[in-house]
Specification:
Blueprint: H1 3-20, E1 30-33, E2 47-48, E3 56-64, E4 66-67, E5 71-79, E6 85-93, E7 102-105, E8 117-122, E9 129-130, E10 132-135, E11 143-146, E12 155-158, E13 160-161, E14 164-167, E15 177-178, E16 182-186, E17 191-200, E18 203-212, H2 218-238
Parallel strand pairs: 2-8, 10-14
Antiparallel strand pairs: 1-11, 3-5, 4-18, 5-6, 6-15, 6-16, 7-12, 7-17, 8-16, 9-14, 11-12, 13-14, 17-18
Length: about 240
């Protein structure tokens, strides 16, 4: 093995370790925790950092809240090699006296059960109100829960748990209740809109966001339609 080949192999090995060695799958019935919340070395933690390299922004939507909360959720769809999709969510709570502590993505017809989540994380670029120690103020959730089989909620993002963690609250009226960018890397090839539930004890709100779907997005349908028309034209020429 010559020197250049050896260096290329080492670079590939480092890339493989950094891109897959720390990836933590989020399978149905499992939970990934914030490493700042403790839980011991054996606890499964979600990735600290932004959407992994190789993801290109494909679509974006911002939906206002309905119900008890004032704010919005920004939903972004990224594509990577093979057409696989990554979903990212950023929540804003501008309610002066109501904390946003839980968000669930997916209504009764949510498609998350059929999607494999190979990695999930949050980049710590938010601004939130800390609670009892251990605490953090970067907008990262306490944990990410996937329990579509039993609860029917699809994907759950939880900022506060048993008075520990953080909460999205516009404490001083300046719009500081901002979550981190929370993302899920999946094997989904299509996406659509789904319901979002927002919770603070007995107060609830709703919104919309992108999520995996078995129905292709409009761009995919357009491409497919163009291909079918092209094939039909070739067929007519040959006949």
């Amino acid at each position: 093995m010559n020197k250049r080949l050896a260096m290329s192999f080492m670079a590939f090995l480092v890339l493989a370790i950094t891109t897959s060695g720390f990836a933590t799958p989020l399978t149905p019935g499992t939970t990934l925790f914030n490493s700042d919340a403790g839980g011991g070395l054996s606890a499964p933690y979600y990735t600290s950092g932004g959407v992994p390299l190789g993801n290109a922004l494909f679509d974006s939507m911002t939906s206002s809240f309905g119900g008890a909360f004032i704010g919005s959720v920004e939903s972004n769809v990224y594509k990577r090699a093979g057409g696989f999709l990554t979903f990212e969510y950023i929540f804003t709570n501008n309610t002066d006296a109501l904390s946003l502590v839980r968000a669930t993505i997916g209504d009764a017809s949510n498609p998350w059960l059929g999607a494999y989540i190979s990695d999930a994380g949050a980049d710590g670029r938010g601004s939130s109100t800390s609670l009892a120690s251990p605490f953090w103020t970067d907008g990262d959730p306490n944990f990410l829960l996937r329990d579509p089989t039993f609860s029917g909620e699809g994907l759950t993002i939880q900022w506060r748990a048993s008075s520990i963690g953080t909460t999205l609250l516009d404490q001083d009226g300046s719009g500081t209740g901002l979550s981190s960018r929370i993302w899920f890397e999946t094997d989904a090839l299509a996406y659509g809109k789904t319901g979002v539930g927002l919770i603070d004890s007995g107060s609830v709100g709703t919104s919309l966001a992108f999520a995996p779907s078995t129905i292709p997005e409009p761009a995919t349908l357009l491409l497919l339609g163009t291909g079918l028309l092209f094939a039909a034209g070739i067929g007519r020429k040959k006949s």
